[in-house]
Amino acid sequence: MTDVVSPGFRTTRRRLLSLRWRVVVPLACLVLAAFLAGAAFLYAEATEDRHAIAHRALAEAVAGSAAFDREVGAAGFLLQGLSRSPVLKSGDLRAFYDQLVETPHPEGSWFVLWDMNGQILNTIRPFGTRLPTRAEMGPTEEGYERIRARGLSISNRVMGPVAKVPTVAVHLRLDGAKGDMAGLLTTVLREARLNAVLREHPLPAGWATMVLDRNLVPLATSDLRPGALPQELSPALMVALKEHCLNGHFVAHDGAGDLLVGVQRSATTEFTTITTVPFALANAPVEAAVRKITSIGLMLLLAGGMAAFVVVRQVGPMETSAAQTARRLRLSEARYASLWNDTSESLFVVTVAPDGGFVFEGLNPAHERATGLTFEAIAGRTPEECLPPDAAAAVTARYRACLQRGGPTIYDEVLDLPGGAGSGRRALLLSVIRRRGRSCF
User: Fold this and answer.
1) How many whole angstroms separate alpha carbon 176 and alpha carbon 313?
2) Which of 210, 234, 289, 325 is 20 to 30 A away from residue 200, measured at CA?
3) What is the pLDDT of residues 194-233, one digit of tens each?
């Protein structure tokens, strides 16, 4: 009876992926995950920049609306001071005209005094000049009612009946002796003055702030280009402003291109101030991020292709060598399996456990026939678990002596086994493998 080692017998080999794919696929997945994470970060940062531009457009609209309200408020305070003039109360129109002319006022503006029938004083005309009547200026009942109700009001954009230029008028109600409305005191602001108010706060190139009256007619613009103030808004922008009745920002089409629009509506004047930014400028951070992501992606694709080519070239010979080695190993396993199963010699394998004990790994068919033991009865068990006590003690002593000697041990053994007592049986015990602190016989 001979003890030999046959590692790897009675096992099957699982087919694995090609070595080159086992290298390329995980690396490609890692690079792809890093690229997607970086792309998401760049895109999120770009959208935040675009959102910041939208918020700045809204802030500029708020600032422009506040500046316009301050101008109207200053005109209102000036009118209230003039309304208390003694010469006005006395009815001395000549003296009040002279006072209006001498009163400091914004450049390009002038004063008008009205009674309920029309203009009676206008400082851009000499005293005594015939002035338009209320009937000649057309229906203005809505404007009169607003002034009567509020006391101080600003008109929509109108063509001045005397100056014949687009103007906005700030009206103050004047009461008679009975407390009813007797007339108006007005300061007229020209387009140039309103433009100057908006241009006090510079904007980035391409940006523009515009003030619209209650009818969404443009009054003033911060754009310095000649003729920059349109006579009316594009229909699409007009519809968008009517739909977005609250303050905020949105994107609209103005007929020439998309605009990012910041909107602020004044509770004082009921006018609307908008700051417009070409959407191409507002979206520039996102477009730059997309270009950067595309460039990085193309570079990674090119670099990945080159790396894959190099890996295939380098790993290919290794894979071929590994395949040849595996083929030789399978042939060797087949030869050992044939020897294990077909030989007439009794063979079995014993492993030395980490605790110093001995465990049967298996036995071949010849040994099964000779001893009456079966592979299933002893595999994975100690001698004490599968042999009679005397036989277990005997083989354990032999195994331990061989382990201590470190070389082959030949001896005669007679064991009381299920197949019958062995007589004159010669055993060869050989320590053939030592790995991970374990010995096999």
Assistant:
1) 103
2) 234
3) 888 888 888 898 899 999 998 899 988 988 888 778 888 8
Q: Does domain 343-440 have CATH number 3.40.350.10?
A: no
Q: Is the full-model pTM beyond 0.70?
A: no
Q: What share of the chain is helix, strand, coil (3-state, %, to 5)?
A: 45, 25, 30
**Where along the chain do its domains lie?**
343-440
Give the whole-angstrom CA distance, residue 399 versus residue 352.
9
Alpha helices in 178-283 (DSSP H): 191-199, 235-243, 279-282
**CA 90/CA 80 separation, integer angstroms:** 17
* C-alpha distance across the termini of the chain, in Å: 13
pLDDT in tens, 97-136: 999 999 998 888 899 999 888 889 999 899 988 888 887 7
- Angle at the Cα of 225 (from 224 to 227), degrees rounded to 5? 120
pLDDT value at position 378?
84
3-state secondary structure of 103: coil
How far is C-alpha 372 from the chain's CA centre? 74
The CA distance from 441 to 427, in Å, is 12
Cβ atoms of 308 and 300 closer than 8 Å: no
